[in-house]
Q: What sequence folds into this?
């Protein structure tokens, strides 16, 4: 079930993937502010803030689950990161590179399933791998100055955990909720609804 | 809420450069700086960035308006570093339980905060002076980006300012039907989430219709598109890219010469 | 380019997720250069037919029956010969600047770069577009967007031009301009198929009328004289707006009652200039004015949904009970929904739930009605507005007219004391239009207050007891823009 007939992107695939990315670009922008506002709450152990990390990774998994074409995860995450950079994020143009690496993680997961399965296991693996991409990037680029054992390692582990739960399972649930509204009717993800 | 129009004077010498050149210059400049943790190189970089501000036709006020979230970021870095710095060498300045502040920590903190600004500002400069349509055009014409993806993303991007209006509409529609959160924070959160979901659904629906409208005007016809708006990538654009790289290199060079250079990896 | 012959043989289409066919058994032949007015009750499948002709019904979105051909080929294969303007212009602007948007189609068709801008300027001139091509598309009013969308299609010089209610939501002046732009733009080779409920205005543009039957087939076909001459009565009974047939007005049974709401220098610069008016129980007040005058803004302010920029809205105890001291925009939502109902200009802005039934039940449940009452009331409304067979449908998949009826019905469901409707009658066939007039008139005669924002002169003539006309907000700072003429003469003075 659910395999798309061709791998060529239709216009609707491109535009809807971009729309998802743009919407999440805005969410990122807002989430960046929330992230900073939440700093004090995690002051006892700042690495634990990585539990919030999954939100940055939702578009990668969501794009893959909805569009179901090679490149969708990468495209969504990279465009979302670019939009948030455009709106002015504190991480500047670096987010673009970061988005590419995160998107690549999810892309690998869908490729591992040969773009045939888009059920929960695929979603969880995509979440985990996009989290891994994010964790590696942060480990070397952003967190280098911090202590290894008490900060960098727990931060990386929590990132992967959060990505699996929030981005993986979360995007899966979100896809189902979207399908139920009927907006995905022209995508494989939105088929099989009752007739009226 | 969010303005997408470029600010500043569009005819300023650097604002006029090819968008791809501006983007490439900013990225090269940023990534070079990412390689070090010392305070000197980013400080030089910030000086350079402020110096070219007028060349981008930007006034400091506009820069501050776009860059204010950085201040919060700087605060976050300071707190984290007080508690979890890897390098606690140097003289101990403050010792209160887990909070140990040494001169080494202070130098690292200064370096990180400067790096934050140095890394973020080029993006602000470029995006504040670049029209999204021009960027998409240049990506297609000068960077060989696939036209369907660039134009498709651009069309979706145009919906962005509408999202704010849409949010207001959804809230009003619910209120008119008697749906409101009241004072309870839990109810508020639930309403917020459901409004955000509705917004996403609406955005996807709009995207679907937009795609149909684009197809109706032959977007996916399989013929190679022509371009109405030419984007040139000339000598001046090459100079910008080379200049940015050279300046970043020079900043690193000074830092090495002064002996402050601290590579990110290693 | 030219061409533009259309052949349909037993054509049918069923949208994915629906049991009923939107179109079925349509046999049709339109020759090159003909100008056709396509009529039919709301939901008969007019928009669907245009989409099919434009090659915009992808196989994965429904099921087809019979054949459809443009110039002897599948519409998907000859998309470049067909130009379409949709019911809603907002969804078809692609680019951020007006000129770029017109150029978009030309680029896609690989028109050489040096020919593009002259053709863009020519198309913009043909529709009378008065701004420079650098103007942002976001800064256009509804009417200007219509015009731009038309220019974007004309620039492609289509052999077959398809227009779906191109003047809905325009003020009479703007609509006349669009019609003359269409008339000017057509040449002998262009085939035109136009969907428009208000026949009288569209007749000068066409030489043939085709009426679709709800549920399948073509009901009538021929010159306007022939169609309306032979089938006039039957068509009118079926809901087609047959020219020359007036509707008997429903005047108020009793004089207006107590004042429900007053506004004092109410405004929201720059959208609405200061406005003073009062709304009474048992009275239908019509708000008129050109596009962009601030009518919708006024409706939202009266509905307690926007905070006023200047002045205030004051509800009388008659409407507000104990809350009369606070302005409506500060009332808790459930109290607001019980007292004031709002119908938005764009029906889709108003939908909150996933099915037509839930949409109607929501307000009732929120105001604490028992489940039995909810079912009874909802069924009754579904029946009266001919939405019963769509009870389980998603509101966003409805036709233009069906969506409008649903949004009106949601506000009618709770029977609030004051009802504010923004363009409640656009896109309606004659039968539902009359049903709406009856529903509104009954409410008024039960002592409810009614404010309708409208461009529909016939609706004003049939129902309104009093009219208020807004002007465009003045560019100078002083001077009130709103004028109130107490009289009812408009009702008699409306043409036809
Ligand atoms: N995307 C869709 N999915 C499911 N059903 C649809 C969709 N679009 C239209 N329909 C249904 O198909 C039928 C015909 O719709 P269509 O929009 O063609 O009607 P119409 O004649 O244009 O009506 P109106 O005058 O109200 O615009 C309607 O019953 C409508 O509910
Ligand atoms: N959310 C908004 N933000 C800013 N300006 C707006 C907004 N909505 C409308 N406007 C502007 O305010 C003015 C009045 O708009 P409004 O929609 O009230 O006009 P209207 O009289 O209802 O027009 P129409 O007949 O076209 O529906 C217009 O110039 C419009 O462009
Ligand atoms: Mg229609
Ligand atoms: Mg309006």
A:
């Amino acid at each position: 079930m659910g395999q798309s007939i061709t791998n060529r992107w239709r216009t609707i695939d491109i535009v809807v993937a971009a729309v998802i990315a743009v919407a999440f670009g805005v969410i990122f922008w807002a989430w960046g502010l929330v992230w900073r506002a939440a700093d004090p709450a995690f002051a006892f152990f700042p690495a634990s803030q990585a539990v919030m990390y999954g939100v940055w990774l939702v578009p990668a998994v969501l794009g893959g689950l909805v569009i179901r074409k090679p490149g969708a995860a990468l495209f969504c995450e990279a465009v979302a990161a670019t939009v948030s950079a455009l709106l002015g994020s504190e991480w500047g143009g670096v987010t673009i590179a970061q988005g590419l690496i995160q998107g690549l993680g999810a892309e690998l997961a869908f490729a591992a399933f040969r773009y045939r399965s888009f059920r929960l296991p695929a979603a969880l693996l995509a979440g985990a791998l996009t989290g891994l991409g994010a964790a590696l990037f942060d480990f070397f680029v952003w967190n280098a100055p911090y202590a290894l054992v008490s900060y960098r390692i727990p931060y990386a582990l929590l990132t992967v955990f959060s990505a699996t739960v929030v981005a993986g399972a979360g995007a899966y649930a979100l896809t189902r909720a979207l399908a139920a509204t009927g907006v995905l009717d022209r995508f494989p993800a939105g088929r099989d609804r009752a007739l009226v | 809420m969010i303005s997408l129009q470029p600010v500043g004077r569009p005819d300023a010498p650097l604002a006029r450069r090819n968008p791809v050149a501006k983007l490439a210059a900013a990225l090269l400049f940023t990534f070079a700086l990412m390689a070090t943790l010392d305070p000197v190189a980013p400080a030089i970089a910030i000086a350079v960035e402020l110096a070219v501000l007028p060349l981008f036709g930007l006034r400091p006020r506009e820069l501050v308006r776009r860059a204010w979230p950085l201040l919060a970021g700087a605060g976050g870095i300071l707190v984290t570093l007080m508690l979890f710095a890897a390098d606690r060498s140097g003289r101990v300045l403050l010792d209160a339980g887990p909070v140990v502040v040494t001169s080494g920590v202070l130098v690292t903190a200064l370096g990180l905060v400067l790096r934050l600004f140095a890394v973020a500002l080029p993006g602000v400069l470029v995006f504040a002076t670049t029209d999204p349509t021009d960027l998409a055009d240049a990506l297609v014409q000068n960077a060989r980006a696939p036209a369907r993806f660039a134009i498709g993303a651009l069309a979706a991007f145009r919906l962005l300012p509408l999202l704010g209006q849409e949010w207001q509409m959804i809230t009003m529609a619910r209120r008119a039907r008697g749906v409101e959160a009241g004072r309870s924070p839990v109810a508020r959160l639930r309403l917020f989430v459901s409004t955000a979901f509705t917004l996403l659904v609406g955005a996807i629906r709009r995207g679907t219709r937009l795609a149909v409208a684009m197809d109706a005007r032959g977007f996916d016809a399989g013929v190679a598109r022509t371009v109405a708006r030419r984007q040139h990538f000339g000598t001046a654009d090459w100079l910008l890219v080379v200049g940015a790289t050279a300046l970043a290199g020079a900043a690193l060079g000074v830092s090495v010469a002064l002996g402050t250079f601290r590579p990110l990896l290693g | 380019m030219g061409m533009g012959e259309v052949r349909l043989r037993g054509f049918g289409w069923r949208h994915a997720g629906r049991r009923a066919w939107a179109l079925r058994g349509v046999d049709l032949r339109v020759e090159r250069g003909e100008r056709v007015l396509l009529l039919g009750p709301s939901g008969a499948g007019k928009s669907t037919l245009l989409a099919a002709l434009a090659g915009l019904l992808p196989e994965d979105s429904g099921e087809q029956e019979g054949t459809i051909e443009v110039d002897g080929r599948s519409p998907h294969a000859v998309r470049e010969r067909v130009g379409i303007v949709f019911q809603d212009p907002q969804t078809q602007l692609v680019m951020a600047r007006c000129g770029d948007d017109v150029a978009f189609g030309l680029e896609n068709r690989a028109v050489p770069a040096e020919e593009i801008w002259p053709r863009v300027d020519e198309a913009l001139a043909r529709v009378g577009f008065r701004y420079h091509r650098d103007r942002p598309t976001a800064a256009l009013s509804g009417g200007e967007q219509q015009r731009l969308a038309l220019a974007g299609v004309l620039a492609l010089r289509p052999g077959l031009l398809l227009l779906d209610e191109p003047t809905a939501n325009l003020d009479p002046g703007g609509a006349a301009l669009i019609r003359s732009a269409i008339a000017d733009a057509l040449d002998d080779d262009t085939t035109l198929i136009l969907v428009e409920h208000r026949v009288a205005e569209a007749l000068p543009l066409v030489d043939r009328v085709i009426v679709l039957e709800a549920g399948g087939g073509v009901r009538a076909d021929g010159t306007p004289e022939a169609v309306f001459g032979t089938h006039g009565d039957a068509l009118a009974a079926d809901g087609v707006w047959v020219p020359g047939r007036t509707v008997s007005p429903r005047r108020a049974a009793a004089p207006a009652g107590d004042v429900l709401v007053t506004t004092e220098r109410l405004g929201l610069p720059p959208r609405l200039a200061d406005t003073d008016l009062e709304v009474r129980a048992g009275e239908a007040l019509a708000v008129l004015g050109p596009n962009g005058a601030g009518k919708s803004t006024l409706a939202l302010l009266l509905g307690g949904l926007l905070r006023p920029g200047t002045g205030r809205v004051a509800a009388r105890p008659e409407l507000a009970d104990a809350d009369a001291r606070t302005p409506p925009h500060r009332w808790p939502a459930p109290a607001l929904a019980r007292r004031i109902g709002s119908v938005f200009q764009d029906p889709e802005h108003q939908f909150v739930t996933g099915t037509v039934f839930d949409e109607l039940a929501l307000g009732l449940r929120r105001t604490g009605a028992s489940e039995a009452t909810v079912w009874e009331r909802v069924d009754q409304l579904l029946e009266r507005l001919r939405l019963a067979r769509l009870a389980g449908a998603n509101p966003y998949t409805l036709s233009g007219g069906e969506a409008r009826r649903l949004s009106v019905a949601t506000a009618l469901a709770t029977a609030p004391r004051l009802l504010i409707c923004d363009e409640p009658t656009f896109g309606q066939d004659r039968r539902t239009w009359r049903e709406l007039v009856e529903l509104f008139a009954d409410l008024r005669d039960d002592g409810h207050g009614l404010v309708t924002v409208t461009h529909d002169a016939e609706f004003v003539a049939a129902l309104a007891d009093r009219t208020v006309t807004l002007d465009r907000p003045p560019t100078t700072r002083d001077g009130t823009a709103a004028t109130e003429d107490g009289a009812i003469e408009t009702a008699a003075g409306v043409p036809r």
